[in-house]
Amino acid sequence: MNKKSSRDIFVSDLPRNIFSGFVVSLVALPLGLGLALASGAPPISGIIAAIVGGVICAILGGSNVTITGPGNGLVVVILSAITILGEGNMYEGYLYTLAAIIISGALMFFLGVLRLGSLSNFFPSSAIQGMLAAIGIGILAKQIHVMLGNLGASGSILELLYFIPEDVLIFIKTADKSVFYAGSVGIISLLIMIFYSKIRNKYFQLVPAPMWIVLVSVGMYYYFEIFSTETYPIADEFMINLPDKIFSKFPQPNFTKLFTYEFISAVIAITLIASIESLLSIKAVDKLDPDKRRSNINKDIRSLGIATVISGFLGGLNVVTVIARSSVNVNNRGSNRSANFFHALFLIAFIVLFANELRHIPLSALAAILVYTGYKLASPENIKKTFQVGSEQLIIFLITLFVTVVTNLISGILIGILTTFIIHIVINKNISLFIRNLLKPNVLMFEEDEKYFVSIENFSSFLNYSKLKSKLDQIPETEDVIIDFSRCDFVDHTVMENINSYSESFRRKGGHFEIIGLDGYKSGSNHPFALRKFVIGKPKDKTITLTKRQKSLHKISEGLHWNYTSEYKKEIKELPNFGYFKTRQITKVSNILSNEECTLFDLEFSEGELIAKQNVKVTMMYLELKNNIPQFTLDKEGIFEYIIHFAGFKDIDIDNHPDFSKRFYLSGKNEEKIREFFSDELILFFESNKYYHIESNENGLLIFGNERLAGVKEIKALADFGLRLKQNIS
Amino acid sequence: MQSIKKILVGIAFSPNLKPNIFEAIRLANMFGAQLVGVHVGEKTSKKEKQLIQLISEAPDLHSPIKTVWKKGKPVDIILSTSLEENIDLLILGAIQQENIYKYYVGSVARELTRKASCSVLLLIKPSIDRVKCNHIVVNGLKDKKTNETIKASFLISRALACKRITIVEEISQKEIEVKVSDDYSLRKATIEKEKLKRREDSRVHKILETINTEGISVKIQSIFGKRGYSIGHYAKVKRADLLVMNAPTKTTILDRIFPHDIEYILSELPTDVLIVK
């Protein structure tokens, strides 16, 4: 793609980006006001964050279709920072918090410079889920009171939750017209949020739900103003408060508390949540991008940092990447960062042109939007999903949630990490596995036969996931990858979840990503993201669930009309007759794909005795033959390891096929018969196909590729090879 | 290590003595070398009898074993004997971790590995019956010792009749100047990796030009990863029988705290390891 054509694309895409930016701004306007209010900051601060974020990140950002602005995750942190730092005075607290926001922006910038953008990879996913749910509850607990027209509610999250029923009663019984109307607007707004997605009207859906709320509540004001004889029933204190000169007078951040404990912990909490929220959003939005581009995370974090610093100086909140607005952008066919820029421009236009109208939005309407957002974060569905992954994940989730609600975010996430680690130790009944191997570079990646092979040792969990991730990030998503966990004793949910998202993005971009080595591991549930643990011997049936590989094998068997069982009760009798197994003890046969004459299976065998004993897992194919053929082994020349048992037999060269003789090592007892058996067609077949180790024991053939478990794609190739070979022989 | 004329094996009267001795005798015969057995401790007639009995059960030695009995600190004595006797190869046994199939080098052997002036062979699974060596993995990293090490691996593979050698180039991640952060930099990094691979391949090919590789299948594999560790992991994945490595340049106390290169291998032996000096 040359420069001109990319500019042409940019220009031709402009209209749709402008449109998309417009739609996003319709969502961003009420959300920005609401998030700022919920944070205890002046409403305009949310709009400032969105404008600065839109402009700066559109220019400097590293992702494509993300939208930046104030984030819902930060509401709770900023509210607590304002309350604590202000010591009762909300405006003072706001000025101190602005200073904290500026510092956190600078920290974000340095995280990006140091390429630590992947900070969130160090957190277990269930703990993050729990923390987000706690944030949701925090938002909901506070805003539900505002929604019902009670502006004065305060206290801890638990107290606020406790007062909800009481507040509902007050709202029903109230004689205050202002409270009643404000509460009614709030409840109607909430209903709009809830039922918006259920109404399938083309024209209704043109305007996003938050904007409907703005339109309805502003419309109500003008109804009273113009048509009704009555005066507008909601008092001024229940209305949003916007300054008169929005873009000329900015508040002064107050840095005087810079080195106090409260200030520092506020900075840490803000930075932590801002980067986690941004990273989660960027990752999620990348999956939505129709052009399948990969975001430059560190560049994005840097630009968010810069934007936050500027926003802070102008009196705005933190700038983070936000998922909901970004997905609105994608749905409206936004295709590059200019959409983010236009969303900022439209926000400026709204504020300049409609400032007066916006002043007629009741607080309760905005609170309703936030109640809905909070509910989404903490919805019981999330809990259900976590539980499906495994009961241990639910424990982590609930503990993190609870600790975050009763203390604060930082303690919450720390306890979450600790809980996860303890649970891992308990599950494995082994602490040294983690301690001994924590710092070891446990991931090996190399390219072989145009395939990437990644082997992971010891254990793989959130503790060392970044090592695996840094390797996986280096593989172009159009390639073939095999991830081998067979040397790994334990794989946790965080890794499984992330690995699955890799597998998805490889599939999207035309590559192939396969996980092997987990079959037969013990897992907590049959969810694909469930953690998996290696067990010695045969575990109870209940604890074993099929892995993705096993499920794919099942599918293949259906396609071929073969049988499939994951666990085999009987042994395959013919196997020990092969020379290969003379020195190898078969311990387990599993994942068997078979019809009457062909059997494909994973085999576990041990080599050596006692201390030298080694367990090896290999995928093989066994073909039963009707007619007798001579005993032989056929190998690629140079790989001698399989043929020790034929020691003493020389390489049999077939006349007239020097190339075949050069490339293959053929040996066996009866040279004459073997020469006879290797017809021209058969030799051509071997020459034109992939190399496999093939051994004949007169009435059967044993075929396998590498001495390891095969991926699904490799199994298909092996099955195909075997079937064609069989046709060739008989 | 042009040839191996003298091999030293430590004799400790432990349950592993028999396989250790058998393995040493076989190796001595394969290399046509003389075997020197060193026992650190008192010479008693009972021990002597046991040893003679063992050697009589073992395959015949081509040249007679020389036994040295000395009292003192094991490390000092083995080191001084290896100097006195002009030893070319020191054979040491590894210890297995309890219950798991992992091997590591004990403290004495570790010290010997660091201080010995000759090559050291660390055996994880000495056995009484011969287990054939089928695949040797050797490091091919950019180091002035590598040339010698690769030559040594061919010498060994001829002596052990091993027909397959993989030369592994460990390329440090740091050498790739492009950091992967998006599609564009990923493409650039992939191209650069390809370049590095080619550069390393041609370097190894140059070394191979001076070696007779006939009859041995040689493969060159480049790995981007931590030096010393990824080659061990690779040897495990490929189930190699012997890993041949350069001797470390110098190890300080810091290397043991922040392990690198050879220290990774010593803390967890992937297979039999030969360290070439």
Give a structural overview.
The complex is a heterodimer of chains A (730) and B (277). Chain A is of the alpha+beta class. Chain A contains 25 helices and 16 strands. Chain A folds into 3 domains: 6-391, no CATH class; 435-533, 2-Layer Sandwich (Transcription Regulator spoIIAA), CATH 3.30.750; 548-729, no CATH class. In chain A, strand 5 (480-491), helix 20 and strand 6 form a beta-alpha-beta unit. In chain A, helix 8 crosses helix 14. Chain B is α/β, with parallel strands linked by helices. Helix content of chain B is 39%, strand content 22%. Chain B has 9 helices and 12 strands. Chain B has helices spanning 17-31, 45-57, 74-84, 107-115, 146-159, 183-209, 229-237, 253-257, 262-267; strands spanning 6-10, 34-40, 66-70, 89-93, 95-96, 103-104, 119-123, 136-139, 164-171, 217-224, 242-246, 272-276. In chain B, helix 1 links the parallel strand 1 and strand 2 (34-40). The model of chain B has no long low-confidence stretch (mean pLDDT 78). Chain A binds chain B through residues 62, 115, 293-299, 440-448, 453, 455, 457, 473-474, 476, 484, 487, 608-609, 611-616, 637-641, 644, 707-708, and chain B through 96, 101, 124-125, 127, 131-132, 134-135, 163-164, 179-183, 185-187, 189-190, 193, 216-217, 221-226, 229-230, 233-234, 236-237, 239, 264.
List keywords for this structure.
heterodimer; A: 730 residues; alpha+beta; Transcription Regulator spoIIAA; 25 helices; 16 strands; 13% strand; B: 277 residues; alpha/beta; ten-stranded mixed sheet; 12 strands; 39% helix; elongated
Helix and strand layout, with pairings?
The complex is a heterodimer of chains A (730) and B (277).
Chain A: H1 3-38, H2 44-60, E1 67-69, H3 74-86, H4 90-113, H5 125-147, H6 157-162, H7 164-173, H8 177-195, H9 209-227, H10 261-288, H11 297-313, E2 320-322, H12 323-331, H13 338-358, H14 363-377, H15 380-389, H16 391-406, H17 409-428, H18 432-437, E3 443-448, E4 451-460, H19 465-472, E5 480-491, H20 493-508, E6 512-516, E7 522-523, E8 532-533, H21 548-560, E9 563-567, E10 584-594, E11 598-607, E12 614-624, E13 632-636, H22 658-663, E14 664-667, H23 671-677, H24 680-688, E15 693-696, E16 700-704, H25 712-729
Parallel strand pairs in A: 4-5, 5-6
Antiparallel strand pairs in A: 1-2, 3-4, 5-8, 7-8, 9-10, 10-11, 11-12, 12-16, 13-14, 13-15, 15-16
Chain B: E1 6-10, H1 17-31, E2 34-40, H2 45-57, E3 66-70, H3 74-84, E4 89-93, E5 95-96, E6 103-104, H4 107-115, E7 119-123, E8 136-139, H5 146-159, E9 164-171, H6 183-209, E10 217-224, H7 229-237, E11 242-246, H8 253-257, H9 262-267, E12 272-276
Parallel strand pairs in B: 1-2, 1-4, 2-3, 4-7, 8-9, 8-11, 9-10, 11-12
Antiparallel strand pairs in B: 5-6, 7-12
Helix pairs in contact in B: 3-4
